[in-house]
């Protein structure tokens, strides 16, 4: 499937600079460009590649000013990264398969509501009382517990497990290995051992949420663990019991959120960030990778480090740590000079 620069510009509202009739049939990173491919330039660190890339078309910002000639045709847009995402989504919808029907062997319990346009892959199990919305895709080897609700248009890739009573909204994507509704980590010390605290709550996942492979969202002890609308969770994330993740928050791989912590809306969380339990993170907070967050954070803060502090303080601390060797040398020198002065008296 080929598209010309003029056609692509028309789709994304861009303006063509160069040969509008040149065609492309695939995507490529700008540093790996080849004829027939479309690339994009969003990060200034990659600007030098644009002068040598072999890609036929490059998406650039409208304000981009080249320093020397460029062989490729340019399509100027407001946001190259968002535009390439739009194009990838268009191609995905044109080329992806749309399986339908119930494959065998699979199990559907009594009282299950399953729309005729749904897909249920082989070796999947849907427990009694589950409600599966329209155009839901449940790939092979999934487990859907009793009373689970899955909204219209959601996709569960192979091996997803959704425990009893949990709710998944519309147009959600759960990747392989996701577990929703396993017991929260609740144990009470008793007689030198630990007594299990029953986890009787559930999980509610709102619309348009995407959860990466092998991420776990635990059920509440009582009440609900909530994942807000539009949240994007990367692979290998742990969300503990009774947590709440606010709308449109994004969280990178290996982050861990301890029990009863509330993360606000539109937050950005780097990889390997750890949250203590029972704290509140405000809206719009940005947290750098590998940070440890032991306390509440007000809205709009940008923090990093362990324990996490305002980002500016962290950078100054890092500079000071880097200079500790030189500082130590100067202190020793001053001590030596002081001893010399004392000995001369």
UniProtKB/TrEMBL annotation:
Broad enzyme group: transferase
EC nos: 2.3.1.191
UniProtKB keywords: Acyltransferase, Transferase
Superkingdom of the source species: Bacteria
Protein name from the UniProt record: UDP-3-O-(3-hydroxymyristoyl)glucosamine N-acyltransferase
Origin species: Muribaculum caecicola
Species classification: Bacteria, Pseudomonadati, Bacteroidota, Bacteroidia, Bacteroidales
Chain's gene name: lpxD
């Amino acid at each position: 499937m080929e598209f010309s620069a003029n056609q692509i510009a028309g789709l994304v509202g861009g303006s063509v600079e160069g040969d509008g009739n040149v065609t492309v049939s695939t995507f490529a990173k700008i540093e790996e460009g080849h004829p027939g491919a479309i690339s994009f330039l969003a990060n200034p660190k990659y600007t030098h590649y644009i002068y040598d890339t072999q890609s036929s078309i490059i998406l650039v910002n409208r304000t981009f000013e080249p320093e020397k000639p460029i062989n490729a045709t340019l399509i100027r847009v407001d946001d190259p990264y968002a535009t390439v995402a739009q194009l990838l989504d268009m191609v995905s919808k044109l080329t992806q398969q749309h399986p339908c029907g119930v494959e065998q062997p699979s199990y559907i319990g009594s009282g299950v509501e399953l729309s005729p346009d749904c897909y249920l892959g082989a070796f999947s199990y849907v427990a009694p009382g589950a409600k599966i919305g329209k155009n839901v895709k449940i790939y092979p080897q999934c487990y859907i517990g009793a009373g689970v609700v899955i909204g219209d248009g959601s996709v569960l890739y192979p091996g997803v497990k959704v425990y009893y009573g949990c709710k998944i909204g519309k147009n959600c994507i759960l990747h392989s290995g996701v577990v929703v509704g396993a017991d929260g980590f609740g144990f009470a010390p008793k007689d030198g051992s630990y007594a299990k605290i029953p986890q009787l709550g559930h999980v509610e996942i709102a619309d348009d949420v995407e959860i990466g492979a092998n991420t776990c969202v635990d059920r509440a002890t009582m009440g609900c663990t909530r994942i807000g609308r539009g949240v994007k969770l990367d692979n290998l994330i742990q969300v503990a019991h009774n947590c709440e993740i606010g709308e449109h928050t994004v969280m990178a791989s290996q982050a861990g959120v301890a029990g009863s912590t509330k993360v606000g809306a539109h937050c950005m969380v780097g990889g390997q960030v750890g949250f203590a339990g029972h704290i509140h993170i405000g809206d719009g907070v940005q947290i750098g990778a590998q940070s440890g967050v032991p306390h509440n954070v007000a809205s709009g803060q940008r923090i990093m480090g362990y324990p996490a502090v305002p980002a500016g303080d962290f950078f100054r601390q890092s500079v000071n740590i880097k200079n500790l060797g030189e500082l130590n040398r100067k202190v020793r020198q001053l001590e030596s000079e002081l001893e010399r002065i004392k000995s001369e008296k």
